[in-house]
Amino acid sequence: MQFQFNTDSNIQGDDRLAEVAEDLVTSALGHLTGRLSRIEVHLADENAQKGGPDDIQCTVEARPEGMPPQTVTHKDADVESALRGAGKKIASLLKTEFGKRDDQR
Hints:
This is Sigma 54 modulation protein / S30EA ribosomal protein. The protein is built from two helices and four strands. Helix content is about 40%, strand content about 30%. Strand 3 and strand 4 (about 70-75) form a beta hairpin. It has a four-stranded mixed β-sheet. By secondary structure, it is α+β, with helices and mostly antiparallel strands. The protein has a single domain, classed as 2-Layer Sandwich (Double Stranded RNA Binding Domain), CATH 3.30.160.100.
């Protein structure tokens, strides 16, 4: 599985942050990572220097093999919370989608 990490110009996307993002999102996905070809994570600070509640937006796109891409977005107060929230959302969405597909078989 490939992992791609992107940030906007307001968030410094260094190697350490990319590792943290990969760890948080893949750990939320657990065993589902084996059914994915790629995960893309994008972090954006919507209010830039202004601050404010829930201004960090994390978008996660998962590419399940043999299925269309699945995308979720989560906003939170800080980067780590946004990553955790988006990881939980994408895991829940994929469990539902894989469950539907597995039930049809």
